[in-house]
Specification:
about 200 residues
């Protein structure tokens, strides 16, 4: 089973980062300069999906087993090296990333109808990826960790732009902000507790 998930993960992470992401970025550029079919907010959310592909490429393909080995050696919860009961498995990696892909795609597709989906994803990914790679992991391992480069140069600038755009153009109503924030925090707690139960003694 582990081997099966390992092959699936390697395949989709490689295809996503090396093929889907560049194609998606190119399509967004073509739309921006020629058609204008997508709104600014929707374009930013599709770009978020492309950056998610690039991030997983750095995590798992450019650093084979890098993030998995790093995560299992350094507890993101205890902030100190420890041996885990069950290492971050390929099945967990598949489940978490499949959820992230589906969520990012739905947020982009329904950007006009359900704009709070994009903000909820931004909150969750900011707390789980951006905060973890740039702050939390650095408390226990003050050097490069797999995924850090795409977080600093892709996610953080993009999420700053999305937040500015959302506020500047009043994309969300007060209730939309409330739903997005609550869902984002709830999903962060759910995903963190799920991973923690598998990795911390």
């Amino acid at each position: 089973m582990a081997s099966k998930f390992s092959k699936i993960n390697t395949l989709w992470q490689a295809i996503g980062g090396a093929i889907f992401a560049p194609i998606l970025v190119m399509l967004l550029i073509i739309d921006y300069f020629n058609y204008g079919y997508l709104s600014g907010y929707q374009s930013l959310l599709w770009l978020n999906l492309a950056f998610l592909f690039f991030h997983e490429l750095e995590d798992y393909i450019l650093n084979p087993n890098g993030f998995k080995r790093f995560f299992n050696s350094y507890s993101v919860f205890a902030i100190k090296p420890h041996k885990t009961n069950e290492p971050l498995s390929e099945k967990v990696i598949f489940t978490v990333n499949a959820l992230a892909w589906a969520w990012a795609i739905l947020a982009a597709v329904f950007a006009k109808q359900l704009p709070w989906l994009g903000i909820s994803f931004l909150i969750t990914n900011s707390l789980i990826n951006c905060f973890s790679h740039t702050v939390l992991f650095q408390l226990s391992h003050k050097s490069y960790n797999p995924g850090l480069i795409t977080v600093i140069f892709l996610f953080i600038p993009l999420y700053t732009a999305i937040l500015w755009y959302t506020i500047a153009f009043s994309i969300l109503t007060a209730s939309g902000w409330a739903i997005g924030i609550i869902l984002g925090i709830a999903m962060t707690l759910l995903m963190s507790s799920s991973i923690k139960s598998k990795t911390v003694k």
